Amino acid sequence: MSYNIHHANPPSRPGEIDLEAIARVIRDQKADLVALQEVDVNTGRSGTVNQASALAELLGMNFYFARAIDFDGGKYGVAILSRYPLSGMETMSLPETAAPQSEDRVLATATVALPDGRMIRFGSMHLDVSNAANRLQQVQAINQVAAQEKRPFILAGDFNDMPESAAIQELDKLFTRTCGSNCAPTIPVDAPTRTIDFIAFTHASGLEVVSQQVVPERYASDHLPVVATLQFK
User: Splitting the chain (233 residues) into consecutive groups of 10 residues, what average pLDDT does each group show?
Assistant: First the structure.
């Protein structure tokens, strides 16, 4: 699953936090691996709660949080949730030289030990919202990391860009998006018109898509979650 959780603030309830609603969405989809974006850790606006840890506890999952910026007395960034053991967790800062004033962005990655003993690499990211050239640079940096990865590599997150954009076209050079050429919109939740949240895997991963859907969950966040089932060929 890829899910921008809007720091667990339902759009219809300004200023309120509902972590259980986010957990329910993940639980209902029976997701094994989740890439989260817009996660608060110990910020004032979210009641000084470590949202990554709290969601992991609610769901009985392992987690890794990657700080992008300091915010409101705490940290803000992306996270990984996993039903399987995690190791080799890393946070990589993404470039923003085209517009250095933009909010800092990161890629979080971890090695996941699957039940059959196979190991994969899983990544969660959130690209720049304001500058297309930054987004292109950030995807190029992610592609460089993925090209060096010997394990199957799954990437998920909020790309803040549409399928026809330069950034997504760059992504497609190395990755296969689970939605293929028929990518349903993920934002805004009330009447979705834009497809900016994706799950993808490197061409060399040996994976194929069993199913893919955008979940019509309109309360918990301002993004719709994306869920895909993958299998090894």
Answer: 98 96 98 98 98 98 98 98 98 97 98 97 98 98 97 98 98 97 95 98 98 98 98 97
Residues 6+ apart with CB under 8 A from 101: none
The full DSSP string for 216-227 is ---SS-SS--EE
Answer for the pair 223, 4: CB distance below 8 angstroms, yes or no.
Answer: yes
Q: How many domains does the chain have?
A: 1
Q: What is the CATH number of the domain that holds 69?
A: 3.60.10.10
Q: What is the pTM of this model?
A: 0.97
Which domain covers residue 64, as residue numbers? 2-232
Q: 176 - beta bridge partners?
A: 201
Neighbour tally for 196: CB within 10 Å: 21
